[in-house]
Every structure is written in structure tokens, then in C-alpha cells.
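Lab manual, section 2.4: Encoding a predicted structure.

Procedure: take the sequence of the chain (137 residues), apply the prediction step described in section 2.3, and record the output as C-alpha cells. A sample record is shown.
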Amino acid sequence: MTPEAMAAIYAAAFPHSRAWSAAEISDMLASPLTFAISGDVGFALGRVIADEAELLTIAVTPDHQGQGLGLILLDQFETESKTRGACWAILEVAQDNAAALALYTRAGYEICGERPSYYSRPDGEQITASLMKKALR
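Recorded output:
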């Protein structure tokens, strides 16, 4: 999947957030530490540094959300992370994103902290992120 396609999916999946541009995604993917898992209507971006994987995002087009594709992408992210030597996975998720919180909790992630005002909405609203982690090995 191209960075342009990823940017379009991201913008559609997160209409109340600042969209990531194709250039930003391309820059992330230029690092050998960063990888993408993609399908026709969604993708996950992650990176592994030492023994820790970070899920940067999972995005699925709105008309395909709620069909289990996020869980499939998350599982593939974890598999690739383990292949790259990760023992842990971490992520941040907006506390008002109930669907994502449910997905990550169902997949075995646990809240281990929070980051106040981590996300900024286009209207200036500040949203706290929950920091979540999961042992991969």
C-alpha cells in the first residue's frame, strides 16, 4: 500500500484528528525500524526498538470498521514485532475512543498510564491518551 493510500485511509478513519500526510507516512517508513501491515481497506504502522514494539496507528476505512479487521491488523503487527525481537508492545489511545480501547483490551493490552493532553483535535480540544502495554513473549 502506498503512503498516499495510507494517508487517505487515515484521514477517513480519524475525521476529527489531524490527518497524517503521505509525506509524513513516507518519512516514517524510511526508517528501518518502522514497518507497515496493510490490507485493502486498512493498515497498521509500527516500529521496534530494542525489545519494545510501538503501535503507531491502526486505521480502517469507516465502511469496514467493526468487522474484525482491526484485530487482524493488530495480530499481524504483534507477529511482525516478535519476528523483529520485541518482547513488549506499547501504544497510546485517546481515552474517548471506546472502540479502540475495547479492541486493545480484548487483545490483552492493559492500561499502564496516561498522557494528559496528548491528542489535539482540530477545534483545539485536548484529549488524554491511555498508555497500554502487552507482553508478546
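Check your result against the sample. The CA atoms of residues 93 and 137 lie 22 Å apart.
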